[in-house]
UniProtKB/TrEMBL annotation:
<protein>
    <submittedName>
        <fullName>Phytanoyl-CoA dioxygenase family protein</fullName>
    </submittedName>
</protein>
<keyword id="KW-0223">Dioxygenase</keyword>
<dbReference type="Pfam" id="PF05721">
    <property type="entry name" value="PhyH"/>
</dbReference>
<dbReference type="GO" id="GO:0005506">
    <property type="term" value="F:iron ion binding"/>
</dbReference>
<keyword id="KW-0560">Oxidoreductase</keyword>
<dbReference type="InterPro" id="IPR008775">
    <property type="entry name" value="Phytyl_CoA_dOase-like"/>
</dbReference>
<dbReference type="GO" id="GO:0016706">
    <property type="term" value="F:2-oxoglutarate-dependent dioxygenase activity"/>
</dbReference>
């Protein structure tokens, strides 16, 4: 029997909220057991110390940069197909289908460890990098640990989902591990989004978002983040995508420099594998 999408997970009120703000927090969408499975899998990969595109170093070698001890993983599913079921979890794909009004396609996977003392990520828009068109990409940000502002939880800019792609300026390297930062437009403001383990934050690729440094003494802020496109997308940054059944589909790769005239190969698998 063909595997059906698990839809009907988003209420009409939630959909209206998503349409207005560009993001939706689904609390407790994954069980603690499901979250622990993801966490344990990635912590095991880290403990092995070697994975394609992932090379953690010792604390001494890191010279104070904790994100070299716990670097983020970009597209680990390309090297380990066991990660693909996490990307296409039925509840995640179901919520995305409800929000997109069409079948979602899984495009990119990431895992962030963000240990105590680690830098944050400056405000940015995901579709600046993912370049899904027509339309925009979607993110599903799975909170693996409880995430609040002390340990570097998410911040969002409501209603920024209607913005065009903004061209970034250089971010503060003291607080952000990435180089790009966009400004918050006049009339908009940043709001914190605190999450418990198992909560998932869904947002579209135009929403301005980011996080601040993890200032806690002993709390990781791990997260599993995947990006998606609607089935009707014609161009994407990642050419290999997955349906909710795990089937491979392909789309045209957007090789343009984007609206800001800059190439972004570092977010694709080409930069890591």
């Amino acid at each position: 029997m063909e595997k059906q999408l698990l839809t009907g997970l988003v209420t009409e009120q939630e959909k209206q909220q998503f349409t207005q703000n560009g993001f939706l927090l689904k609390k407790g969408l994954l069980s603690i057991e499901e979250v622990d499975e993801i966490k344990d899998y990635f912590m095991t990969l880290h403990a092995k110390g070697s994975f394609p595109g992932f090379k953690p170093v010792s604390l001494e070698e890191a010279e104070g940069d904790l994100l070299r001890v716990y670097p983020r993983m970009i597209n680990p599913h390309r090297a380990d197909p066991n990660i693909i079921p996490f990307m296409i979890h039925p509840k995640i794909m179901g919520v995305l289908a409800d929000l997109l009004d069409e079948e979602p396609l899984a495009s990119q996977s990431m895992f962030y460890f963000k240990p105590p003392g680690a830098k944050g990520q400056a405000l940015h828009q995901d579709n600046y990098y993912l370049k899904v068109s027509p339309g925009t990409c979607m993110a599903a940000w799975v909170s693996i640990d409880d995430a609040d502002q002390e340990n570097g939880g998410m911040v969002m800019v409501p209603e920024s989902s209607q913005l065009d792609t903004l061209c970034p300026h250089e971010a503060d390297p003291e607080t952000s591990f990435t180089n790009d930062e966009v400004d918050v437009p006049e009339g908009m403001s940043i709001v914190p989004v605190d999450m418990a383990a198992g909560d998932i934050l869904f947002f579209n690729g135009s929403v301005i978002h980011g996080s601040y440094p993890n200032t806690s003494k002993d709390r990781f802020r791990r997260s599993f983040i995947c990006h998606y496109a609607g089935y009707s997308a014609v161009k994407v940054m990642e050419d290999t995508l997955y349906t909710h059944r795990g089937e491979l589909v392909y789309r045209e790769v957007d090789e343009s420099a984007g609206p800001c005239g800059v190439e972004f190969d570092y977010v694709t698998s080409k930069a890591y594998y």
